[in-house]
Amino acid sequence: MQSTAHAFKDNVGTALADPNLQDSLAKLKVGFSERRRQAAERLPEFEALRDRARDIKNHTLAHLDFYLEEFERKVTALGGHVHWAPTAADARRIIADLCRSVGARTVAKSKSMVAEEIALNEHLEALGIAPIETDLGEYIIQLRNEPPSHIIAPAVHLTKDQVADTFLEHHRALGFDKRLTERNDLVAEARYVLRQKFLDADVGLTGANFLVAETGSSMLVTNEGNADLSNTLPRMHIVLASIEKVIPTLEDAAVLLRVLARSATGQESSAYTTLNTGPKRPDDLDGPEQYHVVLLDNGRSGVLGTEMQDILRCIRCGACMNHCPVYGAVGGHAYGWVYPGPMGAVLTPQLVGVEEASDLPNASTFCGRCESVCPVRIPLPKLMRHWREREFERHLTPKAMRRGLAIWSFVARRPGLYRRLTAVANRVLSLFGRVEGRYRSLPLAGGWTRFRDFPAPPAGGTFHAQWQAGRKRP
Amino acid sequence: MPTPAPAAPSRRVALFVTCLVDLVRPAVGFAAVKLLEDAGCTVEVPPLQVCCGQPAYNTGDRATTRAIARQVIDAFEGYDAVVAPSGSCGGMLSHHYPTLFDDDPALKARAENLASRSHELISFLVDILGVDKVAARFDGTVTYHDSCSGLRELGVKQQPRRLLASIPGLELREMKTPEVCCGFGGTFCVKYPEISNAMVGEKSADIAATGAGTLLAGDLGCLMNMAGKLQREGQGIRVRHVAEVLAGMADRPAIGEPDTGAR
Q: Which domains does chain A have, with CATH numbers?
């Protein structure tokens, strides 16, 4: 996916002016957070589980090489294949070669953010191989030729009416010429259309929520069952996953699953939890003949051992964006790339470059709500601040901001000067503003007064001036 | 939560005024002094204090942040407690300063010492001094916004509500989402004014829906943001720092109201 993260501010303008998006976001903000809260409250050990989930991921990251090699050994022993992809281009090439090796014309895909990250669909299409998205949300946005706007609810930016229009437009040729208005009817129509595509697909491509080192299994959770059809019907199953998805044991998976669904959708568990462990065995009734796992690095190993390492704990539940007031105001597309919201604001600069995505870690009030709900306790505001520090060191911080800060810091480090200047500022602001009580516009404060008034200080001077003068009441 | 200790009459408290209170709303500082003195503290205002350094810290300028933190550490040496009428400045001192000096054990120790003595005003009154009521009266309805740093870094949630509940005549009407950020975020509100405006617009709708006559919170930055939006929208809701009401100083013009100069 081509990044537009550099155009964040323009994207924000578009998002705020889109009434359909704003309608959808209004629902998302209430729905997800309320369901997550209830799910967390129903489980007394939820907070303790979050600690364990964090510890499991920390342990794995500290021994990532060991667990990845262990995973590879197990997959190979089962008759599967592991492919190491240092870069996105490597992953695309490996997958394209695999598809061509079986003469694939269509690939049934279940939702994979890593596939978005490496722009797999565009690559396959260019080679004449048709990728078919089978997750309902992904299917909708594929028809509309849009990128996902959320990591677990890719079409969450759309209203039901928009989906109805999209289906009518694209399904008419298949004989569906009635515009549907009920949610269930829309789902039923999509199921019907997709069923034949599963049967026709030559390759099934899925992501993975976890890779279990002790068994060599890839693990997937969905609510639609589409992944199960993607990985059992076609003769080749390709799992595309990034390296930090590996965890040591099934026991660990059980802990992570318990926090994942609750944090994501407020469910106790997702409707389908599927383990794929190698290709079809001789006495199995179904399953793929070939089982391949493509392990993508794409810059992640460079995060290990740095102050940003905590972001690799992320299990992609989406809770941070569901609770983020900035995401709630502008939606996922404004972030300009695959991963939106707080986790995206940390991960995107790493994966596409901080020059490209310099706005993302800055577009946060550090309200901390993301960290307060993260199932693996990633200190997201702290990591965003680290990016700001790197930007400042590399002079990527906007010039006006740097200049303002330099002046402010010169003054703030000289208490005597600071006191004199604030006394003048207080006096001027008070003198010209106290009759009205506030300013509707102020020089140098247009960012503020464009949308809100600025209060004038009451007469009497700064607090320090009054205190020095021995006053005890304002 | 610490066990409430009886207020030691000799407790020497330094007020960290905060730069916004100093410049825009001195009444909050005086309200803080009154509340602390009523609780038996001796209050001093160290003259060498300026800002806590958040503008630099949140812009990624670590060197300036460290320089300012050193200055604050010096200014507040030796007091039993350092109290700020702000959750975000309080959190800066008590949670973030110690992380600035990982390469300097001596300074880190001093930062940790300051951190252990630093408090947000209302939680200091309730959790440390054991205050459970105030001598004030307020006739009207209020709603209370939980500022983010106070709420999530310092656990300030019930303390202000507990003290407000002790005020005769005051009725608290909760918002639907009092814990959602108002969109201030320090420099955020001028770096990303459109997003900030969308956030504070939503907040002002939530405030207005309570029907309360007065909005209260514990951080002046958030209060100025919400007051400015409510006033721009022409909502007739008055806005004050919670300390003003708790200290019985709500007779003065509210934030952004004309000051007739009457003393």
A: 5-296 (3.40.50.10420), 309-399 (1.10.1060.10), 400-468 (no CATH)
Residue range A9-65, pLDDT digits in tens: 999 999 999 999 999 999 999 899 999 999 999 999 999 999 999 999 999 999 999
Q: What is the pLDDT of residue B1?
A: 47
Whether ipTM > 0.85 holds is: yes
Q: Give the chain A residue nearest B44 (alpha carbons).
A: A467
Go through the domains of chain B in sequence order and give each one's CATH number: 12-128 (no CATH), 140-246 (3.40.50.11810)
Candidates A450, A452, A458; nearest CB to B259: A458
* Residue A42 burial (CB count, 10 A): 11
Residue in A closest to B179 by C-alpha? A369
Mutation site, B194, B199, B255, interface A, largest A CB count within 10 A:
B194
For the stretch A187-205, pLDDT in tens is: 999 999 988 888 889 999 9
CA dist A306 and A253 (Å) reads: 26
In chain A, residues with a C-beta closer than 8 Å to the C-beta of B23 are 422, 425-426, 429, 457, 462
Structure tokens at A344: 């995206």
Surface of B (79-138) touching A: CB under 8 A: none
A326 contact residues in B (CB cutoff 8 A):
195, 199
